[in-house]
Design brief:
The chain has 271 residues and is mainly alpha-helical. It has helices at 10-30, 38-52, 60-82, 88-93, 96-101, 104-112, 118-132, 138-144, 160-172, 183-214, 219-235, 240-264. It folds into 2 domains: 7-113, no CATH class; 115-271, no CATH class.
């Protein structure tokens, strides 16, 4: 916005460029592409592309091709870095650890393993409900009140993915509980068939509001809407608590904090 305006002040050029570089550096530090989970990386770095090169996403075909390229090619490549069995400092001191971790299992794990288990997890949820009944919203409280630490709320419910994972361990000799739980499954776990229908209506209403943000002239709203759209790839996979907490926290950073800063410094103009 600064570079598009006429009559720019030279002193502000230094401020704008310096601030931009600092913020980009902070993103790289706190959302490190080599160590951060892909669910946390993808939406944020797509937002950066959207801000700097919006023409990359100005048609459905372009957006679909970029997402397809990222999910099919980039994600397996990133898994080489995110799944290396070493700390970041160890990788810096010995970069060979990365090349040594590259093998067929890592590169192909996105295509030939049972990680895409949404249907199976939904079936496990249906079986769990038949044994123990619906949670009637209890499982949603861990998501809605994600900011409350367990040290304060000791009875805080675990995430639905972990809850169903524990059920599979108890009933079917599963060996880990770190699993996803799709959005439709969350609706059934809480309120049954009514929950599936209710969640669908809430989701549709939520997206109509997001589309309004995308069509806004406010670039903070447009960026927030774009983040929400990309984040849905991970949100719908579940579980709800992790997806919802990331959605709220990053949205807070994208929109609320800048609006507060604009309000505090509304008398200062860059041009």
């Amino acid at each position: 916005m600064y570079f598009k305006k006429k009559g720019k002040k030279s002193i502000n050029l230094i401020v704008v460029v310096s601030t931009l570089l600092i913020f980009l550096l902070l993103i790289v530090v706190f959302k490190n592409p080599f160590m951060e989970k892909r669910s946390g990386l993808g939406p944020i770095y797509f937002c950066i592309l959207f801000l700097f090169w919006p023409k990359l996403f100005n048609t459905n075909i372009k957006t679909t091709l970029i997402l397809y390229f990222s999910l099919i090619l980039l994600m397996p490549i990133l898994s080489v870095f995110t799944h290396v069995n070493a700390s970041f400092s160890e990788v810096i001191s010995n970069p060979k650890l990365i090349t040594e971790s590259i093998n067929e299992d890592v590169l192909l794990s996105n295509f030939n393993t049972i990680n895409f288990d949404a249907y199976a997890n939904f079936l496990a949820t249906i079986e769990n409900v038949s044994d123990y009944g619906f949670s009637f919203g209890e499982q949603l409280t861990s998501a809605i009140f994600f900011f409350v630490p367990r040290s304060v709320w000791e009875a805080k419910p675990i995430t639905s993915g972990q809850y169903i994972g524990n059920y599979l361990i108890d009933k079917h000799d599963f060996w880990f509980n770190n699993i996803s739980n799709p959005f439709i499954s969350e609706g059934y776990l809480n309120f049954g068939v009514f929950g599936v229908i209710l969640f669908a209506f809430i989701f549709a209403y939520f997206f109509t509001k997001a589309l309004q943000l995308l069509k806004s002239d406010d670039y903070l709203k447009k960026t927030l809407a774009f983040f929400i759209a990309i984040h849905m790839v991970y949100f719908l996979r579940g579980d709800f608590t992790n997806g919802f907490s990331q959605l709220i926290l990053v949205s807070f950073g994208i929109y609320v904090i800048p609006k507060v800063i604009f309000y505090l410094y509304k008398g200062i103009k860059l041009w």
